[in-house]
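User: My collaborator sent over this chain with a note saying "see what the structure looks like." That's all I know about it. Can you take a look?
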Amino acid sequence: MATTEVSEWAKFCRLENIYGFSSFGFHSSSQRGDAYRFGARYSLASDLSKVNINGRNQNTADGYAQLMRTVMAWGVVESYFELYDVKIGHQTARNSNLVPHYDPTKLTALKGKLNNQQCFKFFTELKLHVNSAHETVIDDYLANPLGGYDVSYLFFSYSSCVCSWDFNSAYG
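Assistant: Without extra context I'll predict from the sequence alone. Here is the result:
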Protein backbone atom coordinates (compact mmCIF):
# COMPACT_ATOMS: atom_id res chain seq x y z
CA MET A 1 0.00 0.00 0.00
CA ALA A 2 1.34 3.43 -0.92
CA THR A 3 1.86 6.13 1.68
CA THR A 4 -0.36 9.18 1.79
CA GLU A 5 1.27 12.36 0.56
CA VAL A 6 0.32 16.01 0.70
CA SER A 7 -1.82 16.91 -2.30
CA GLU A 8 0.48 18.03 -5.15
CA TRP A 9 3.60 16.95 -3.21
CA ALA A 10 5.28 15.53 -6.32
CA LYS A 11 4.62 18.83 -8.12
CA PHE A 12 6.16 20.76 -5.21
CA CYS A 13 9.30 18.58 -5.33
CA ARG A 14 9.61 19.01 -9.10
CA LEU A 15 9.20 22.81 -8.91
CA GLU A 16 11.54 23.03 -5.93
CA ASN A 17 14.23 21.24 -7.94
CA ILE A 18 13.76 23.63 -10.86
CA TYR A 19 13.29 26.99 -9.11
CA GLY A 20 14.76 26.41 -5.65
CA PHE A 21 13.25 26.43 -2.23
CA SER A 22 13.32 30.21 -1.84
CA SER A 23 10.87 30.66 -4.74
CA PHE A 24 7.89 29.47 -2.65
CA GLY A 25 7.58 32.53 -0.43
CA PHE A 26 8.25 30.76 2.85
CA HIS A 27 9.77 32.75 5.70
CA SER A 28 13.46 33.53 5.19
CA SER A 29 14.42 31.35 8.18
CA SER A 30 12.68 28.30 6.67
CA GLN A 31 14.83 25.66 5.08
CA ARG A 32 14.18 22.87 2.61
CA GLY A 33 14.17 20.32 5.43
CA ASP A 34 11.31 22.19 7.12
CA ALA A 35 9.06 21.60 4.11
CA TYR A 36 10.07 17.95 3.91
CA ARG A 37 9.46 17.58 7.65
CA PHE A 38 5.95 18.94 7.11
CA GLY A 39 5.38 16.39 4.32
CA ALA A 40 6.70 13.50 6.43
CA ARG A 41 4.55 14.48 9.41
CA TYR A 42 1.50 14.75 7.18
CA SER A 43 2.15 11.31 5.73
CA LEU A 44 2.65 9.67 9.13
CA ALA A 45 -0.40 11.34 10.69
CA SER A 46 -2.53 10.28 7.71
CA ASP A 47 -1.30 6.70 7.60
CA LEU A 48 -1.31 5.75 11.29
CA SER A 49 -4.23 3.42 11.83
CA LYS A 50 -3.41 1.01 14.65
CA VAL A 51 -1.14 0.67 17.63
CA ASN A 52 -0.35 -2.65 19.27
CA ILE A 53 0.67 -2.49 22.90
CA ASN A 54 1.73 -5.62 24.74
CA GLY A 55 -0.38 -6.26 27.82
CA ARG A 56 -3.08 -3.70 26.95
CA ASN A 57 -6.58 -4.32 25.67
CA GLN A 58 -7.72 -3.16 22.22
CA ASN A 59 -9.72 -0.21 23.57
CA THR A 60 -6.61 1.16 25.27
CA ALA A 61 -4.50 0.60 22.15
CA ASP A 62 -7.17 2.31 20.01
CA GLY A 63 -7.29 5.22 22.45
CA TYR A 64 -3.53 5.67 22.25
CA ALA A 65 -3.64 5.47 18.45
CA GLN A 66 -6.21 8.28 18.33
CA LEU A 67 -4.22 10.37 20.80
CA MET A 68 -1.10 9.87 18.71
CA ARG A 69 -2.97 10.90 15.56
CA THR A 70 -4.22 14.03 17.34
CA VAL A 71 -0.72 15.00 18.45
CA MET A 72 0.69 14.25 15.00
CA ALA A 73 -2.07 16.22 13.27
CA TRP A 74 -1.30 19.21 15.47
CA GLY A 75 2.40 18.75 14.61
CA VAL A 76 1.49 18.90 10.91
CA VAL A 77 -0.42 22.14 11.43
CA GLU A 78 2.43 23.66 13.46
CA SER A 79 5.09 22.62 10.95
CA TYR A 80 3.07 24.13 8.10
CA PHE A 81 2.70 27.49 9.83
CA GLU A 82 6.34 27.44 10.90
CA LEU A 83 7.25 27.58 7.20
CA TYR A 84 5.69 31.05 7.26
CA ASP A 85 6.98 31.91 10.77
CA VAL A 86 3.44 32.02 12.18
CA LYS A 87 3.37 30.95 15.84
CA ILE A 88 -0.10 29.41 16.10
CA GLY A 89 0.51 28.45 19.73
CA HIS A 90 -0.22 32.11 20.43
CA GLN A 91 -3.97 32.77 20.44
CA THR A 92 -3.85 35.97 18.36
CA ALA A 93 -1.76 34.36 15.61
CA ARG A 94 -3.96 31.26 15.61
CA ASN A 95 -7.18 33.29 15.42
CA SER A 96 -5.94 35.36 12.50
CA ASN A 97 -4.18 32.57 10.54
CA LEU A 98 -5.87 29.26 11.33
CA VAL A 99 -9.45 29.77 12.52
CA PRO A 100 -10.64 31.66 9.38
CA HIS A 101 -9.70 28.63 7.28
CA TYR A 102 -11.95 26.14 9.09
CA ASP A 103 -14.35 24.32 6.80
CA PRO A 104 -17.71 24.82 8.59
CA THR A 105 -19.07 21.43 7.49
CA LYS A 106 -15.98 19.55 8.67
CA LEU A 107 -15.89 21.57 11.89
CA THR A 108 -19.50 20.61 12.65
CA ALA A 109 -18.72 16.94 11.92
CA LEU A 110 -15.63 17.04 14.18
CA LYS A 111 -17.58 18.61 17.03
CA GLY A 112 -20.19 15.88 16.60
CA LYS A 113 -17.48 13.23 17.02
CA LEU A 114 -16.25 14.98 20.19
CA ASN A 115 -19.76 14.83 21.69
CA ASN A 116 -19.45 11.54 23.59
CA GLN A 117 -18.72 10.24 27.07
CA GLN A 118 -15.21 8.96 26.27
CA CYS A 119 -14.13 12.40 25.04
CA PHE A 120 -15.75 14.09 28.04
CA LYS A 121 -13.92 11.71 30.36
CA PHE A 122 -10.61 12.29 28.58
CA PHE A 123 -10.81 16.10 28.55
CA THR A 124 -12.09 16.22 32.14
CA GLU A 125 -8.96 14.36 33.21
CA LEU A 126 -6.70 16.37 30.89
CA LYS A 127 -8.04 19.62 32.37
CA LEU A 128 -6.24 18.79 35.61
CA HIS A 129 -2.85 18.97 33.83
CA VAL A 130 -3.03 22.06 31.60
CA ASN A 131 -2.54 25.80 32.04
CA SER A 132 -5.47 28.11 32.80
CA ALA A 133 -5.97 29.25 29.18
CA HIS A 134 -6.35 25.65 28.03
CA GLU A 135 -8.54 24.88 31.03
CA THR A 136 -10.96 27.63 29.93
CA VAL A 137 -11.28 26.12 26.43
CA ILE A 138 -11.81 22.64 27.89
CA ASP A 139 -14.52 24.08 30.18
CA ASP A 140 -16.19 25.69 27.15
CA TYR A 141 -16.12 22.35 25.32
CA LEU A 142 -17.43 20.36 28.31
CA ALA A 143 -20.26 22.88 28.83
CA ASN A 144 -21.33 22.73 25.17
CA PRO A 145 -19.51 20.16 22.97
CA LEU A 146 -21.34 21.39 19.86
CA GLY A 147 -20.78 25.06 20.74
CA GLY A 148 -18.36 27.86 19.98
CA TYR A 149 -15.10 26.61 21.50
CA ASP A 150 -11.94 26.60 19.37
CA VAL A 151 -11.18 22.98 18.40
CA SER A 152 -7.58 23.84 17.51
CA TYR A 153 -7.01 25.21 21.01
CA LEU A 154 -8.71 22.15 22.50
CA PHE A 155 -6.25 19.87 20.66
CA PHE A 156 -3.37 22.23 21.37
CA SER A 157 -4.13 21.78 25.08
CA TYR A 158 -3.47 18.07 24.69
CA SER A 159 -0.43 18.46 22.45
CA SER A 160 1.24 20.98 24.75
CA CYS A 161 0.50 19.08 27.95
CA VAL A 162 3.15 16.87 29.45
CA CYS A 163 0.65 14.40 30.76
CA SER A 164 1.47 12.96 34.14
CA TRP A 165 -1.58 10.77 34.35
CA ASP A 166 -1.94 7.14 33.32
CA PHE A 167 -4.21 6.78 30.29
CA ASN A 168 -4.42 3.01 30.79
CA SER A 169 -5.82 3.30 34.32
CA ALA A 170 -8.38 5.83 33.12
CA TYR A 171 -9.48 3.86 30.04
CA GLY A 172 -8.05 0.40 30.09
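A starting point for your reply to your collaborator: The radius of gyration is 18 Å.
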